[in-house]
From TrEMBL:
Active site: E164, E347
Catalytic activity, as annotated: Hydrolysis of terminal, non-reducing beta-D-glucosyl residues with release of beta-D-glucose
UniProt record similarity statement: Belongs to the glycosyl hydrolase 1 family.
GO function term, MF aspect, one: beta-glucosidase activity
Protein name, entry field: Beta-glucosidase
Domain of life: Bacteria
GO cellular component terms, semicolon-separated: cytosol
Species name: Micromonospora craterilacus
Statement: the UniProt record of this protein carries the keyword Cytoplasm: no
Binding locations of substrate: Q18, H119, N163, Y287, W394, E401, W402
């Protein structure tokens, strides 16, 4: 394994709805994922996140697993409806107390708390009022950010406003396969704008109460043209603008990509200035490249997504392409230049069909290979001049994987969902050695 720079942040990531459980505990309100998961036919195995990994009650055990791994940071998300059950107004002090305890437990083990404010679990009452289609939600998000900064701002080491706003817009509001289940296609643009407006307003709110740096975590996917026609190339350009630029160009004062032809009537004077408030870190979530070609005649979209062949595949049927991460980081570096802040890889991981063997162990050599390849890709990008300062593995635990329910396992730690028994996998032991070596022999 190559060496990494001094102070490189080694972390693991999770999200509230996927691990916390305790859905009706402590005054927590309902989220859009509660409603979605309890609707028939939405989740592959008809499961819900009501219990998930029961992290709410087992957080001390999970923090001990992080300490045993040797990570220097933990990226978690706050459940908005746990602290503001209706999304605004009356605060739930018991819910806030949970995050107090979690943050203090992390600090007690020398682990930096990295708090994500929105990882897709919008309070259901805000959705009932229009959700992210409603401009008012951006302002409610800023109030929520102010609340969290007032409570945790003296201890959180990095704030992340939004997680993967592109995925939340496209799968939740464009295609209807995630909560809240809307199928708006390109009419989902207001969701993009209001998420970004909420981000910009939250940046100001966080900075008013906390000295910790502020970031956003975007999902990126290098685009590969499948086919040799001009129409295929045009389709790939459109998809790149949608997936990789829609939520990044505005952050750096470049406005929305004109190639997409969105109706931008929801954008008001001054909004783009709010969105372009400087950030301290860009979070990069990377899983795989995307194959794109021209769509069939009559398609409502200007592109068609197609599988990339010739690569190993995960249990999610995603291609394993470590060099895509190096390619992506280089693209960001070239495109945004001096405007680009330091990057942290805020998610990188893979799902495999892991099981506890007869010896009581969980052997996952494919995940070890995945992590090895992607860490080497990060080092290659650093050698190419990209300022990458951290890597967070998705995920610490096997968890409830959104529309896939409990059928996909991403964790370094296996979870028996019936007993909640945690079993570190062989990838956990491998990564522990990598981190230990890196922290013993830091380089610049």
């Amino acid at each position: 394994m190559p060496e990494f720079p001094t102070g490189f942040r080694w972390g693991v990531s999770t999200s509230a709805y996927q691990i916390e459980g305790a859905a009706s505990t402590d005054g927590r309100g309902p989220s859009i994922w509660d409603a979605f998961a309890h609707s028939a036919g939405r989740i592959v195995d008809d499961s819900t996140g009501d219990v998930a990994c029961d992290h709410y009650h087992r957080y001390a055990e999970d923090v001990a697993l992080m300490a045993g791994l040797g990570v220097t940071a933990y990226r978690f998300s706050v459940a908005w409806p746990r602290v503001l059950p209706t999304g605004a107004g009356t605060v739930n002090p018991v819910g806030l107390d949970f995050y107090d305890r979690l943050v203090d437990e992390l600090l007690g083990h020398g682990i930096d708390p990295v708090a994500t404010l929105f990882h897709w679990d919008l309070p259901q009452p805000l959705e009932d009022a229009g959700g992210w289609l409603n401009r008012d939600t951006a302002h409610r998000f800023a109030e929520y950010a102010d609340l969290m900064a007032a409570r945790l701002g003296d201890r959180v080491k990095l704030w992340i406003t939004l997680n993967e706003p592109f995925i939340h817009m496209s799968l939740g509001h464009g295609m209807g396969v995630h909560a809240p289940g809307r199928m708006l296609l390109f009419d989902a643009f207001p969701v993009a704008h209001h998420q970004l407006l909420g981000h910009g307003l939250a940046v100001a709110a966080l900075r008013a109460r906390s000295a910790a740096p502020v970031a956003i975590a975007n999902n990126y996917s290098p685009v590969r043209v499948v086919g040799g026609s001009r129409a295929d190339a045009t389709a790939a350009t459109a998809y790149e603008a949608l997936h990789n630029r829609l939520f990044t160009d505005p952050l750096f004062g470049r406005g929305y990509p004109p190639e997409l032809g969105f109706d931008t009537a929801v954008v008001r004077d001054g909004d783009l200035d709010v969105i372009a408030a400087p950030i301290d870190v860009l979070g990069v979530n990377y899983y795989n490249p995307t194959g794109v070609r021209a769509p069939e005649e009559g398609s409502p979209l200007p592109f068609e997504l197609v599988p990339l062949t010739g690569y190993p595949r995960t249990a999610f049927d995603w291609p394993v392409v470590p060099d895509g991460l190096r390619e992506l980081l280089g693209w960001l570096h070239r495109r945004y230049g001096a405007d680009l802040p330091p990057i942290q890889i805020t998610e990188s991981g893979c799902a495999y069909d892991d099981a506890v063997d007869a010896d009581g162990q969980v052997h996952d050599p494919d995940r070890i290979g995945y992590l090895d390849g992607h860490l080497r890709a990060v080092r290659a990008a650093i050698d190419d001049g990209v300022d990458v300062t951290g890597y967070f593995v998705w995920s610490l635990l096997d968890n409830w994987e959104w529309a896939e329910g409990f059928t996909k396992r991403f964790g370094l730690v296996h979870v028996d969902y019936r007993t909640q028994r945690r079993t570190p996998k062989s990838s956990y032991a491998w990564l522990r050695e990598v981190i230990a070596a890196a922290r013993r022999e830091p380089v610049r």
